[in-house]
# Entry
Amino acid sequence: MSTLAHTMMTPARTADAGLAGPGELDRYPYAEAPAADRVGPPAWEGADPELGRVGRRAAGSRGRGLHGQLVQQLGQMIVSGDLGADRPLVPEEIGQRFEVSRTVVRESLRVLEAKGLVSARPNVGTRVRPVSDWNLLDPDIIEWRAFGPQRDDQRRELSELRWTIEPLAARLAAGHGREEIQQRLVDMVEIMGHAMAQGDALTFSRADAEFHSLLIQVAGNRMLEHLSGIVSAALQVSGSPVTGCDRPTEASLAHHGRIVDALAAGDGTAAETAMRQLLTVHPEVERVVPAPREH
# Structure
C-alpha cells in the first residue's frame, strides 16, 4: 500500500476527541429536534440564552473559532427558516445573544453576505435575503440544507447535478490520464476496499470523496474542475440511499474499479458507462434519476 493510502487508513479522531465525523446530525441542533422544539423566528430581546450556548457547543465540536461558530449557527438558522427572508439582523443584539464581540459579529455577517444569505445596505442595515439570492453551490450552504428541513430537496438536487457532471468528467478523464493521478485513483479504490472489509465507513467515505474529486480534476476542463467541491460536499452530506456511493457496498467498490480500469485503457465510453452505473440510485428510492438518453 502506498504512503498516501496508509495515511488515509489512519483512524480518524472521533467526536469524543473534539471533531464530529461527516454526516453527524448532532452538530446541527435543528436537524433532529421536533418542529415544536425549534427556535422560532427569534425575537432577540429576552430570548432563551440557551440557544447561544447550544450554538457554540455544537459548532465547537468542529474545531472552529468564535467567528466560524457564529457563521455556522446563523447560517443554520437562516437556511432552516428560523430566520426568515427580510429578517433584520442587528449586530449589537447578535453580539449580546451569542456573547461575542462586535468584530466577530461583523466578520461573520460579511461571510454570510458573500454566500448570498444576507445583505447589508446603508440606512437599511443587514437583512436576510430570499432563497433565490443564496449561493446554492457554496459547500457550507449545501451542508446546511442537507441537514435541515430542505434535506430531501437538497439531496435530490445534488444527485441530479452529479448525473450532469460526473459521467462527462469520467469520459474526459480517459483522455487526460496522468500516471501519478492514475496511481492515486488506484490508491483510493484500495483504501475503500480495506475500509469496507473493516467496517470503517468514515475512511471509505473520505477515500470516495477524494476519488471523485481527483476524477473531475483530471478531466482537463477547468470549469468542471471548479465544481469538484460540490461533488465532495454531496458525498459528505450523503445520509440516505441516494447514490451508489452513499454506503460501502461490493457493487459500488466494483464500479469504482471499473472506472479506474477504463481510464487506464483510455476508454472514455466505458468510463462514462461505469460512472453512470455507480450513480444509479438504490431501488428503494422513489425518485430515480434517469441516465441520459443514448443517441
